Automatic annotation (TrEMBL), chain A:
Its main location: membrane. It holds the Pfam family NrfD. This is Polysulfide reductase NrfD. Belongs to the NrfD family. The chain crosses the membrane at residues 35-59, 79-100, 112-141, 161-179, 219-238, 258-278, 299-319, 339-358, 365-386, 406-428. It comes from the Bacteria. PANTHER family: POLYSULPHIDE REDUCTASE NRFD (PTHR43044:SF2), PTHR43044. InterPro entries: NrfD-like.
Length: 456, 387, 172
């Protein structure tokens, strides 16, 4: 494969195959550092706080939340949509970038996919606890029951059940199939018998046979082909929860693609937040280089601009429509009692990413890190703005109301953050954070120099 | 390697006869169908948009691949560049609408007493309409001219600076196009039904533009290859174009479906009327469009071999091109002509007339420069391209 | 008892060349073990195209028919209910679930077909030839159930292509 000399190398430091294995396996083999212990204790405590709050919600009831008759959806669904959105970068990176043959994906796809799975898990918690009786959650699946009733296939909320579970399962398959060869590598590296047994079991008996590789490559490609429309469908269906209604500010046809763009936008922001730290702590700077950060920043600016255009389109069409409810809903968003949420959303999502037009800033780690957190916040507020500002002004002015989250709700959100980071921290201790085999396939064509192999 | 393309006399004759057939059909239309001026203007607008979209795709394709640092497309870039040379002609044709506004756009009428349309008059008024049109064309033509010039300068020099400048121009075009592609579809297509609105509309039109452009691109390659040119375009290039056609047909369906479904689901009369008119007035056409633009390309291009066979690919591309033309027809005609509109001699004749002229312009542009560019830093990648 | 020859390479280019020559001389290669998918190796070895896409297509088609059919049956035949003024046979509303189930069926079918065909799975007891294969060694395994002359012949070819550790081994 010929690669133009003007392209920036994707793997730095003139690595041999063996060095790649060693570098990427190092974090699993070594003892965890202080930073890891600090991180895990912090995220575990957050998680337990969240669990306690969830327990309280289930024990006491949804009345512990700040919802009221007018605002029946608030914090919970905001977090649900936020987490599902974050869960979009992983599959976007692995599936869509694989189809577009973007080689830089090989260094980041593994951790982004893992992040996807953890984020979707966190997302799934919110509808579950909002049901009030989580033990009866299986009611949402269509199964023959004594009531002779079927679930409502016409409801977008049921579409969500199918979309999110399919997305979780397919992402899991995709991630694990990609992991198998690398677990094989770990199996052949670890010394302790117990570890060897576990990795041996998890590696599914991987041998590296050419026939297996051939099928494995085909499988990845077709799974990517399936996962690409799946990514689009999932957030489109989530957006349909709102857009199928007749609530001003919710019912707008641009929602599906705009939610997808926003999801990828926030997902990449979270990937950046995690990887900028990870590459430093795990000494993977040669694999996740500034070129990777820059590429991700380009996706951020593209999706961020799409989101910005969607905001403006909504705003313009609400005026153009001539429907006074629509016009009021958008005016109220920008200038009503929740104007500050709208302002945060606009600043973080539309204005701040535009700074990335400058190459210097795209390659500046500190700036990128801060920006990625800004975007995470901005995208959270986007969902908050859409949900709360559209609901708090009912068609009936006597129902007008305000929404304030309770400590229980905040605690649950903090808890999911804890769960997410706990999972991620455990993941980097158990599995290679970079796809070892995939990086080896690009190192010759896109490595810093031609690699020289060690002699036997 | 001889990379110069000269239009053969035969080809010229074919282009000319397409246009002549078009004129004959229009004449027949005048004899037998008694067209109103509305019918004529409707055909002008329809074909203006259709060929403008193909031309815009040319610039878009170059700009998109340039900012994505794509290597594979470089050996093909002369073709989309040639597509973009139709833009100035499209601009002239669009400005002809000055004389047809009354027939095309209901909101230009003075005696409406319609509070909804009055409410929109800050945006929907004739002077602003043409100011916007001028701005769009100035941006598109200016940037496409600069991009093409940049690419030609690269041919003459191996200076890396042209590559860098090209990227800046491409980014500028993308930013300009991101906004103008939506607003132009509101202006020229959505305002045909002045009461109706849909936030997704601009993106839906845009994706149709992309699909039809890809299809046209594939057909031009197929034609040039059949004439013995473009030997450097291999199966991998075709495979990628085939994947584009396949993928974006699905994407088109995705946007079509969600626009339709959300309006169907919410069941608000002021929105559903749009689809009610089209579904009740044109039931066959309504579903034909879905078959030609999604079902057929989806099934026909599913396998790997189908995407690598140029004849098959060209056949699918022609079907999609017809499908997209019908798609624009169905967006415009119920609003302009009502539910009784029919595709007759005038419509087909006008399309042929435009097609002949369009091909003439494109192939003339192709013959002026070598079909293969030089000195592009990614050119070598495009030659050694394999999956 | 079955005998085989194994040889090691440190670079995939050498491996590709050696495989090509062995294939030309019609010496049967039992397996090639590599740490990552080597581009073009399957073509050199003349492996048939994988049928996984077909499996995915069939399973996906079944998923489509099943999901659409089931929703239609439940809402039109089994228990027709009026919901939100929609018709019982509400095609647009059935599409999202149909799509999701299609993808789910296709993905699961392909993964299981892959594991089944490759004899991989939880508790699979495949022979691990060498622990370095998943690191940086490329191993070629050649049938040696012929004469000793055959071994010498193969050894010569392999040595010429920079192979190391060419050994005659026996399966237990």
């Amino acid at each position: 494969m010929y690669v133009s000399p003007i392209r920036e190398p994707l793997i730095k430091g003139n690595k041999t195959y063996s060095q790649i294995t060693k570098d990427i396996a190092a974090p699993i083999e070594g003892k965890p550092g202080k930073a890891w212990y600090m991180g895990i204790s912090l995220s575990l405590s957050a998680m337990f706080l969240g669990l306690a709050m969830m327990g309280w919600t289930i024990w006491e009831g949804i009345g512990t939340w700040g919802l009221n008759r007018t605002i029946g959806w608030g914090w919970g669904i905001t977090n649900f949509v936020w987490w599902v959105g974050i869960g979009h970068a992983g599959t976007f990176i692995s599936a869509i970038l694989l189809l577009f043959r973007q080689k830089w994906r090989t260094s980041i796809n593994r951790s982004a996919e893992a992040m996807t799975i953890f984020a979707v898990l966190c997302a799934g918690l919110f509808p579950l606890i909002h049901m009030g009786r989580p033990l009866l959650a299986f009611f949402v699946f269509p199964y023959p029951n004594t009531r002779d009733l079927w679930v409502n296939f016409n409801s977008p909320l049921l579409w969500d059940v199918f979309a999110i579970s399919t997305y979780l399962l397919v992402s899991l398959l995709f991630w694990y199939m990609g992991l198998i060869p690398d677990i094989g590598t770990m199996r052949d590296r670890v010394k302790s018998k117990a570890k060897k047994f576990i990795y041996g079991l998890l590696s599914f008996g991987w041998t590296g046979s050419v026939k297996h590789w051939q099928r494995h490559e085909k499988l990845s490609l077709i799974l990517a082909g399936l996962a690409a429309p799946l990514v689009l469908s999932v957030h489109s269906i989530v957006s349909a929860d709102f857009a199928t209604s007749i609530i001003p500010g919710w019912h707008t046809t641009i929602f599906p693609p705009y939610f997808v763009a926003g999801a990828i936008f926030s997902g990449f922001a979270m990937v950046l937040t995690l990887l900028i730290v990870t590459r430093k702590v795990l000494n993977l700077e040669n694999y996740i280089t500034l070129a990777h950060i820059e590429s991700m920043n380009k996706i951020i600016i593209a999706t961020g601009s799409i989101v910005g255009i969607a905001y403006l389109t909504e705003l313009f069409i609400s005026w153009y429509s001539g429907v006074e409810y629509e016009q009021y809903a958008f005016l109220n968003r920008a200038a009503g009692p929740y104007w500050w949420a709208y302002a945060i959303m606009m600043t973080c999502n539309v204005i701040s990413p535009q700074l990335l037009w400058f190459r210097k800033l795209r390659r500046n780690l500190v700036f990128t890190f801060i920006l990625s957190i800004f975007i995470n916040i901005g995208m959270w507020f986007e969902r908050f703005v859409i949900i709360v500002t559209s609901l708090h002004r009912d068609y009936l002015p006597s129902s007008w109301s305000m929404y304030k989250p309770t400590l229980v709700e905040v605690g649950i959100f903090v808890g999911t953050l804890g769960l997410f980071f706990t999972c991620f921290l455990l993941f980097i201790r158990a599995f290679p954070v970079i796809a070892i085999a995939e990086v080896k396939t690009v190192v010759k064509s896109s490595g810093e120099k031609e690699i020289k192999n060690e002699t036997l | 390697m001889n990379t110069n393309y000269i239009i053969s006399k035969k080809t010229k004759r074919v282009f000319l006869s397409i246009s002549v057939i078009g004129i004959l059909l229009i004449a027949l239309g005048f004899l037998f169908q008694n067209p109103e001026s509305k019918n004529i203007w409707m055909s002008v607008l329809l074909n203006n948009l259709y060929f403008l979209f193909l031309s815009l795709f040319g610039v878009l394709f170059i700009a998109l691949h340039k900012i994505a640092h794509s290597g594979w497309h470089v050996s093909l870039k002369r073709i989309p560049e040639a597509l973009s040379t139709f833009l100035p002609y499209a601009a002239v044709l669009m400005f002809l609408l000055i004389f047809g506004m009354h027939d095309l756009y209901h909101w230009t009428h003075h005696d409406l007493h319609d509070p909804i349309i009055e409410g929109k008059s800050a945006y929907l008024n004739v002077p602003f309409f043409f100011i916007r049109m001028a701005v769009y064309f100035a941006g598109w033509i200016g940037l496409s001219y600069l991009l093409r010039k940049n690419s030609m300068s690269q041919d003459l020099s191996d200076d890396y600076k042209y590559h860098k400048q090209g990227k800046v121009l491409a980014a500028l075009f993308m930013a300009f196009f991101a906004v103008s592609s939506s607003t132009m579809s509101w202006d020229w297509i959505m305002s045909v039904d002045p009461h109706w609105f849909s936030t997704l509309f601009g993106w839906y039109v845009f994706i149709g533009l992309f699909v039809s452009g890809i299809a046209a691109f594939i057909l031009i390659i197929a034609f040039l290859k059949s004439q013995g040119h473009l030997e450097f375009v291999n199966k991998e290039h075709l495979h990628d174009l085939g994947k584009y056609l396949f993928g974006f047909s699905i994407f088109w369906m995705y946007l079509w479906f969600f626009q339709y479904m959300l309006i169907w689901y919410s069941h608000i009369p002021e929105e559903t009327i749009y689809f009610a008119q089209r579904l009740n007035g044109f039931p066959v056409l309504f579903f034909t469009i879905l078959v030609l633009n999604f079902l057929f390309p989806f099934l026909a291009l599913m396998t790997r071999n189908a995407k690598r066979n140029i004849k098959w690919l060209a056949m699918v591309a022609s079907v999609v091109l017809i499908g997209q033309w019908l798609n624009i027809y169905l967006m415009l005609s119920p609003g302009i002509l009502g539910e009784t509109a029919q595709i007759g001699f005038i419509e087909i004749g006008a399309a042929c007339l435009y097609l002949g002229g369009f091909l003439w312009v494109i192939f003339n542009a192709l013959s002026k420069k070598p079909l293969l560019c030089k000195n592009d830093p990614f050119l070598e990648e495009s030659f050694h391209y394999e999956t | 008892m079955r005998r085989y020859i194994s040889a090691y390479f440190t670079d995939e280019e050498d491996l590709l060349r050696a495989s090509k020559i062995l294939m030309e001389k019609e010496i049967s290669i039992l397996d090639v073990l590599t740490p990552f998918p080597v581009h073009g190796l399957d073509k050199v070895l003349g492996l048939k195209e994988s049928k996984l896409p077909t499996v995915g297509f069939i399973a996906g088609a079944i998923g489509t028919i099943f999901a659409f059919g089931f929703q239609t049956w439940a809402f039109v035949v089994d228990y027709p209910l009026f919901i939100g003024g929609k018709p019982h046979f509400a095609i647009p509303a059935f599409i999202p679930i149909t799509f999701e189930v299609t993808v789910l069926f296709a993905a699961f079918a392909m993964v299981f077909a892959f594991l089944f065909r490759s004899k991989l799975g939880l508790g699979a007891k495949n022979k691990i030839h060498d622990e370095r294969i998943t690191d940086d060694r490329f191993v070629i395994i050649i049938d040696a159930n012929e004469s000793d002359e055959h071994f010498e012949n193969v050894k010569n070819i392999l040595e010429h292509e920079d192979a190391h550790d060419i050994q005659l081994k026996e399966n237990q």
